[in-house]
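Model: You mentioned two targets. I'll fold them one after the other.
Researcher: Yes, keep them separate.
Model: Target one:
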Amino acid sequence: MGKVVMYSSVSVDGFVADENDQPGPLFDWLSSGDVALDDSGIVKVSQVSYDYTRPYWDQIGTTVVGRHVFDITDGWDGKPPAGIDHVVVVTHRPAPEGWDPEAPFHFVEGVEAAVAKAQELAGDRIVEVAAGDVGGQVLAAGLVDEVRMDVVPVVLGSGKRYFGSVDAQHLLEDPDEVIQGNRVLHLRYPVRRLGSDEQKG
């Protein structure tokens, strides 16, 4: 089964968007270089960021997002972002009216069921979980293997937190990778596996 990775670009003070769901400068690093990260030609990064990010993107089989992200992106018009094969949407509501049933989007209730579905779809490839409320719930459920952050040198002050509403201590291992790009610091932390009593601190 593929690894479950929680991921997002994040401000130094731990936010993935402001109160109005705007990322502000969090994605500026994706246009700060001269190496195309995908076929669109829009996303251009430094060579260092390309060498770190492209192999990761190529390993992702399925992305798990919350219904809020799905709604504010209009479901990416039924085409998963960044060439990903499937998107699993954690939601209590059915697909929107008129939604194409052939689109590779799966609407699942509850994070445990969503991760199980995502792993089934991804096979031995990575399941990426979007950071935020859903990512925090998946971490709290003990289902995240790795936390990846692209830390951007900005302080947002308030907004949507990377770890959502997580209110318990979770220990991570020392970072596997710490890579400096243009206006971004790429970090990768394995999640420490402890007994439930130890995990809660």
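Model: Target two:
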Amino acid sequence: MDTGILIDSFAEFAKNKNVDRPTMIRILEDVFRTMIRKKYTTDDNFDIIINADKGDLEIWRFREIVDDNSEDIWDHDKISLSDAKKIEPDFEIGEEVAEEVKLEDFGRRAVMTARQTLIQKIKDLEKDLLFQKYKELVGEIMTAEVYQILGKEVLLIDAEGNELSLPKNEQIYKDRYRKGETVRAIVHRVEMVNGNPKIILSRTSPVFLERLFEQEVPEVYDGIINIKKVVREPGERAKVAVESIDDRIDPVGACVGMKGSRIHSIVRELQNENIDVINFTDNMELYIQRALSPAKIGQIKIDADAGRASVYLKPDQVSLAIGKGGQNIKLGSKLVGLEIDVFRELDEVEEEDVALSEFSDEIEGWVLEELKRVGLDTAKSVLALSKDDLLRRTDLEEETILEVFRILSQEFE
């Protein structure tokens, strides 16, 4: 293979990949120095001159002339006087011989090895460039095209034909994909797998929702409105705490838009995920009230050391605070950073009711805790529900629930 072809092919690749000239020259020089070391053991006394624009290569070997009987004659950087005179008759001892080494001097096998080395370095450089490119894009939204749907992931390609992965656990469970359609997601992480960069996307990350707000709400993009925290149950519900650095701008109103115009496109992108936008505040009691909206809270007790908060509500507000499948209280707890326990406030007409704690000698503690977790802290509040309701809302088994019903019912017989 001609040296010019090697250099030209690499220069063309480097140009297409926007590789800077110093990097391109360094890689080419590494390849040829590998050839030199294999033939001559060392490359210390060799100079390589590459003109990538013209596809030219010059390799020069430098050696000092010594007497034919010198002990140094076998050193890699020495040449005997008699051998030097074969190159130039008027050479003398002590002078330096600069001898050009031609590519064909290395032999066909060495040239083919150099070609393979160059191809591998090209591939390694391409992988490194791809890894670095997407490493800088982590947390950013991108659009890619679906080209293969597998059991555990959907494979996509970007505008440059690079393969991206959207794993099952990073997909919104309502998402359905078809080959050729475009998908929006964030670059979640980039990792090397068996020497190849693997770019993993996500549509379930809270960051994805945050970036969608930046795209749809100019005030968020400009930094006038700050998104303090995002918590999600992907495809179901999300809570977003926002604050404005400009008192004249209502952060919630700006994010929702006139008649929901701004948030509507975000909801549609997230498969109709119900998004609650609330005003952030340093007042923890007020923050908890907003986090458990739409429920109306009567009283709040915060134990900062234990990382818990107890909220007391009217009976008709308990289910609102807990939400479908416990989503509202779960997201509210994540948003404020405290475990929230819900309790019912007793009306005067309910004075005959008995607190569940009174049954601790008959009902195991972990069962009582599970009932309290879903807002049931009195006997009548439990008896007001059906067996199926408790099976759905708690982690209790049917046999345990029936036994609880039996014990509590005896209290009012």
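Researcher: Noted. Anything on target two?
Model: Residues 108-135 form the longest helix (28 residues).
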